[in-house]
TrEMBL record:
Protein name: Galactose oxidase
Alphabetical list of InterPro entries matching this protein: Gal_Oxase/kelch_b-propeller, Gal_Oxidase_central_sf, Glyoxal_oxidase_N, GO-like_E_set, Ig-like_fold, Ig_E-set
Domain Galactose oxidase-like Early set stretches: 588-682
BP GO annotations: carbohydrate metabolic process
Annotated Glyoxal oxidase N-terminal domain residues: 240-568
């Protein structure tokens, strides 16, 4: 425990903050009592199965009174000593400001956190965030922490201590002062880039047809192609990957043992990349089978830049999910089996045993979750299936659901708009992860091939019975349908959209196409979770980015975009880099030192910066494919700021479900939203030793109807999936050419119109495979479509 104790000691030895403001707390020392003997403006609250006692005690830090909370038995929940949610008691706050909160306390349990609630002028009182875990202290110790920026629409907050482990906590002398750092003036002289950012196409090409992009903890980027959707490379056994180093511009190709085209991948807690399944076979022209997934699994080691095989999966999974759990295990669902049917077998990779567990040791619902289902880890360990997926309709029911692994039940989450047109949509856990809100945007359907939509939906998983609510429409851009760029009109949006969490707490939305594997849309915008609004009109990537494209955050705060694979089988190997507006606002703050790069949950970590900053966060590095990265998350690090303004103690969440173990990019951000370059830190793991505190888990989403929870289905081998699941008619062309089974509605159902569309989209020399011609592309029966 020496390392953990030392990190806590940093806080207690920090220089005292300057005191300039007034204390905003009513009755901060509990000296005034109301009828009944309880302190004025304070309340007793909490939830769960526990035995507890509250007392006003004379064991005070100053004055004559203090507040004591004791838990003698705890199965679940917590007990709180909290300021009253009352207009005369709750401190008033100003949106966009930050506040320093402090208290004196004694504690016999490490399971204590500073918890804040906020009053939303529209929706009333609601949980806001947990700011800090308080270490055990036999005598009175002072704790201080700075709030995040107060969200729009907030006029008051209340706060106090939550006790969620057995023991006693005594508190006294609460204080709250405005600590807002003024934003610097506008120093940008870069013209439109000041508000729109800028894109640059790199002077080198991607050496591989990468379908998968993983940012490694050494700052490099792993780009995985496998066969790269090229059947000739598949037949030759030529499988490739590359490692890109943004600092040098160097690209190194990596020997790749199997066809990892359309595999699943996730970063383990030690920084290695676990890659599951891949492509066993391309679809047969005669329709006898579709894509096939194999059972192989590999680990990529960033230090040696080599692949090593693990034990096999229990089933094949072409297009599987991959979610890291709070204990470091990985769980995966869906995809296609070795016989092209849908896999109903859930798989679990054990962090402790470093292997895939036998299917009988993994809870099974025998559900088919589809292809690349977006499964996002919730703060209580459940999984939220957002409704984002690839190829075809959504799952039966509402299209979104919560999976409780321990109970092995699935409960629908309602409200997702047009759930059968969210194929190739994007879903992200919005910043910060503590808010437990998920954004889903865009999408279409490869079966019916409509125009991509503009829909967005937001769900708050903190609600007792969470449901999606419509968000703002995706801004429109220009679309090239083979006749040059034209403005989008009506309801035209996009699928294959990329969503990237940014260090300033916003989400970059970029790329995409109007139709399945066709008609690139040139548009980018920034979604701001603070108001659920888009900033439209950002600079756009000049390279089309539709199917098999990726966009992801680099450690220096820029965004890299690769790939584009239209239905005609071509592939764009240009690499683009986006420089966001925040990098045109002058000098960046710098993290000048980090006391340790090995962090543990519920700890306090000291850093220094070269000038004042307003927030710090951990961002999990990307592992993205097909618009999907369910592990992408932004974890707020509440700060305690020393008197010099540059010595900062960062308070790490106690809950591994909020920040699963592994390597993270640590950013510090100033009042103008300008981030530092990231410093890599490792969260969790044996080298940081066991945490002193247990995880603080809230009773969110507790009101989902238990009667509606679905139990496991009868055990069965697979789900039937049509061989045209990818939306491609294999009667024409080669394996990597995707002639749509359904043409866009704007294309008349005639040979001439269909052939004109194919020609304008770069399709050439399409042979007819066999005797059937279901789309009527070969009326003269010469074996050549549109010949």
């Amino acid at each position: 425990m020496l390392a953990s104790t030392a990190s806590f000691g940093l806080l207690l030895s920090a220089p005292g903050p300057a005191r300039a403001g007034s204390n905003l707390i009513v009755n901060p020392g509990f000296e005034t009592l109301r009828t009944g003997g309880e302190p004025t403006c304070w309340e007793k609250s909490g939830w769960g199965d526990n035995d507890f006692a509250y007392a006003t005690t004379d064991d005070a830090h100053s004055g004559k009174k203090a507040m004591s909370v004791t838990l003698t038995r705890r199965v679940s929940g917590d007990r709180k000593a909290l300021m009253l949610e009352d207009t005369s008691c709750a401190p008033s706050v100003t949106p966009s400001h930050q506040y320093d909160l402090s208290l004196w306390y004694k504690s016999t349990t490490p399971d204590v956190s500073v918890t804040v609630f906020r009053h939303d002028v529209k929706n009333g009182w609601q949980y806001w965030t947990d700011l800090k875990t308080l270490p055990v202290s036999g005598g009175y110790a002072r704790a201080e922490v700075r709030t995040p920026v107060v969200p729009p629409g907030t006029d008051q907050i209340t706060w106090g201590v939550s006790v969620y482990g057995t023991g006693n906590v005594t508190t006294d002398d609460f204080a709250m002062e405005d600590a807002t750092q003024p934003a610097p003036g506008d120093v940008c002289t870069a013209g439109d880039a000041c508000t729109k950012g800028s894109w640059a196409v790199m002077p080198f090409r991607n050496p591989v047809r990468s379908m998968h992009s993983v940012v490694l903890h050494n700052g490099k980027v792993l780009l995985v192609a496998g066969s790269g959707n090229d059947p000739e490379l598949f037949k030759a056994g030529t499988f490739t990957s590359a490692v890109y180093d943004p600092r040098t511009g160097g690209m190194k190709t990596i020997p790749t043992p199997v066809d990892m085209f359309c595999a699943g991948h996730v970063q383990l807690s030690d920084g290695r990349v676990l890659i599951m399944s891949g492509n066993k076979a391309y679809p047969a022209a005669d329709g006898s089978h579709g894509y096939e997934g194999f059972k192989d699994s590999y680990l990529f080691d960033p230090s040696s830049e080599t692949y090593t095989r693990t034990n096999d999966l229990n089933d094949g999974h072409w297009y599987p999910s991959a979610t890291l759990l709070g204990n470091g295990d990985v769980i995966t669902f869906g995809g296609l089996r070795e016989d092209s049917t849908g896999s109903v077998t859930a798989e679990r990779f054990s962090q402790e045993q470093q292997k895939w567990l036998p299917a009988g040791q993994v809870n099974q619902t025998w559900s088919y979750w589809g292809l690349y289902p977006s499964m996002i880890l919730m703060q209580d360990g459940r999984l939220f299936y957002s409704g984002s997926h690839v190829f075809g309709n959504g799952t039966p029911g509402t299209g979104a659901s919560v999976y409780d692994y321990d109970r092995n039940t699935v409960t629908d989450a309602p409200g997702l708009q047009d759930k059968d047109h969210r194929d190739q949509s994007a879903s992200v856990l919005l910043p910060p992860a503590q808010d437990q809100r998920v954004l889903t945007m865009g999408g279409g359907n490869v079966n019916t091939n409509p125009e991509g939509n503009r829909l967005t939906d937001v769900i708050d998983l903190k609600k007792p019975a969470p449901r999606y609510a419509p968000g703002p429409l995706i801004p429109q851009g220009t679309v090239d349908q083979g006749q040059g760029p034209k403005p989008e009109t009506g309801a035209q949006g996009k699928m294959y959209v990329s969503a990237v969490l940014m260090p300033d707490g916003k989400v970059l939305e970029t790329g995409g196409g109007l139709h399945d594997r066709a008609d690139p849309v040139f548009e980018a915008s920034m979604f701001n979770p603070a108001g659920d609004t888009f900033q439209p009109g950002l600079a756009t990537d000049p390279i089309p980015r539709t199917y098999h494209s990726s966009a992801f955050l680099l450690p220096d705060g820029r965004v890299m975009a690769v790939g584009d694979n239209p239905g005609n089988g071509s592939f764009d190997d240009h690499v683009s880099i986006y420089t966001p507006p925040y990098l045109y606002k002058g000098a960046r703050p710098q993290i000048t030192s980090v006391a340790s790069d090995k962090w543990q949950y519920a700890s306090t970590q000291r850093v220094t910066v070269d000038r004042p900053v307003v927030k710090a966060e951990l961002i999990r590095p990307a592992a993205v494919t097909h618009s999907s990265d369910p592990n992408q998350r932004f974890v707020d690090l509440p700060m305690t700021v020393g008197a010099d303004g540059t010595t900062i103690d960062l308070n790490v969440t106690s809950n591994p479900n909020l920040a699963p173990p592994g390597w993270y990019m640590l950013y510090a951000v100033d009042a103008a939203g300008v981030p530092s370059v990231a410093t890599w830190v490792h969260l969790g793991g044996p080298e940081a030793m066991a945490p002193a505190a247990g995880p603080m888990v809230h009773d969110f989403a507790h009101g989902m109807p238990r009667a509606a929870a679905r139990k496991p289905a009868e055990k069965h081998a697979s789900a039937e999936v049509g061989t045209q699941v990818a939306g491609c008619d294999r009667h024409y062309g080669t394996e990597n050419v995707c002639v749509p089974t359904k043409f866009p509605k704007s294309v008349p159902a005639t040979t001439a119109a269909r052939c004109a569309w194919l020609s304008s989209h770069g399709y050439k020399n399409l042979r007819v495979n066999g005797k059937d011609d279901p789309l009527g592309l070969d009326p003269d029966r010469n074996g050549r479509a549109c010949g």
